């Protein structure tokens, strides 16, 4: 008896141990490893077929043997306590109008009529909208943009009406480079400048509940739509084109003018050259004409009284100056002339007469500022009058024309000395070198200047 | 002296019984934000209202039965509780499945949002007005008339429920 009892005890003990390893415990609790095998997830679709709703569930582990497994939903149902799922391949679904849509329901996983696991969920929090459809892209040339429109079946539904849509587009050659835009309406505008010209694009849309009361998951993507962006034709605004052409021609003209006038006009103003003293002198002292008998021989100016311009004084002083100077030695012929001239007021006409008036009229003197030099003298002395040096009553007849400065002009010849209109003669025969030496210091300076110039020539 | 004690014995208890419903606990309303009402209940109420108007031509007078119960201040929960129970009695008045489901959704949904502990249930004093006749010998016209009356009563009740919910939501917004 004792042995028999012990045997039965051991058998029962073994049975209990074996049943524990198989996953079924007496207290109804299950091993964690077994529970994980039966984990499942569900989503709902409201008004999917008229007023009927759809609830779809599936086990997370695809290797689960669902042959004998059943799913049952209880709670938050109308007029019934529980509903059993239908099985299709590896999916469990239930299609009914009897969802209360308020409060939580409980889904049981049953094996052999007994619930092995359960899960609480709210039908309105696991809503998966239907995929959008009929997506279209229209190019608006006037607005330079693309109008994207699509349709959704939820616009006609009563419960899940407010959705959030996600539009995704990309250039076909750029894989995994999707651009995403979230909108609440069924229209979207894409600017042309943000897209590549003459490129092929593809675009698709999906939806999700707006999280006000209904919540859930993203729907499936809509069918992809392809569209091509237009080329940039290059057609410009006519006004802009005209302005650009005119500007181009203006710039070209300015460049040509600048190149042509650079040397003559522009460079002297922008970068004036330093004056060359030799050239300046050449301009000042132009070569006299061939028929002009001009001589800078100081001896030819022996008869003339030379005064410095800065020392211009009154006629009286000039007369005094003449009186101070010693007259040069004259030839006999000249002496006779002098005597003769003392008697007669008139002069022989053969003398070269230069009057201020005549002189003025025939004045060859030109200003230094012009192209000619002051050294030109329209004088043709055939003889000289000794009266040139006289300081008698007839008054001095001095001509200071040769000493005139650069301020003279062609029209008039200012005379520094207001001498009486008389006769001025030059005596070319007189080459008074000694006369030079007998002049004062100022006359010597003038002669020196002239002589040095003569020597340079 | 005997007369005084007799008065107290037989006078006070009925008074207590009469005053007991007033002193009973009220219902707590969970959906005061209005999400469940706006997204679920109001849709069913509107659909029922549309169905009733299409089928009946109701008079403007309110049945006496419904006049007894009103959405008074601080008693909105009780009113909704009684109205929700009353809605169940209108089931099968109409043979349409959608009609009955909407009715049940309003009734059960309202009760789902209420947390009441009433001490007495809601019972219609005159069941003959809302319940279809079981007498098979009645005329079809009489049947139809009664059905029409029931639907009219239901329409009025639904409007009262809608008004009471709006009052609750308005009050919660003000607070």
Largest interface, C-beta closer than 8 angstroms, per-chain residues: A-B, 16 and 17 residues
Mean pLDDT of chain A: 73
Helix content, binned percent of chain B: 55-70%
* Largest sheet entry of chain A: 4 strands, antiparallel
Strand order of the largest sheet of chain B: 1-2
Tally of helical segments of chain A: 10
Low-confidence stretches of chain B: 120-133
Summarize the structure in words.
The complex is a heterodimer of chains A (457) and B (175). With 457 residues, chain A is α+β, with helices and mostly antiparallel strands. Helices cover 25% and strands 22% of the residues of chain A. Chain A has ten helices and 15 strands. In chain A, the strands form four sheets. Chain A has a four-stranded antiparallel sheet with strand order 1-2-6-5, with no helix packed on it. Chain A starts with a helix and ends with a helix. By secondary structure, chain B is mainly α. Chain B is 64% helix and 2% strand. Chain B has a two-stranded antiparallel ribbon with strand order 1-2. Chain B is globular and about 60 Å long. At the A-B interface, loops of A face helix 2 and helix 5 of B.
Summarize the structure.
Chain A: This is Interleukin-7 receptor subunit alpha. The complex is a heterodimer of chains A (457) and B (175). With 457 residues, chain A is of the alpha+beta class.
Topology:
The complex is a heterodimer of chains A (457) and B (175).
Chain A lengths: L1 H20 L10 H6 L2 E10 L2 E8 L9 E6 L7 E3 L1 E3 L2 E6 L8 E7 L2 E8 L11 E8 L4 E7 L11 E9 L7 E5 L3 E5 L8 E10 L15 E4 L9 H23 L1 H9 L6 H8 L30 H10 L7 H12 L12 H6 L71 H6 L2 H16 L1
Chain B lengths: L1 H22 L4 E2 L5 H21 L8 H4 L8 H13 L8 H17 E2 L24 H35 L1
Antiparallel strand pairs in B: 1-2
Helix pairs in contact in B: 2-5, 2-6, 4-5, 4-6
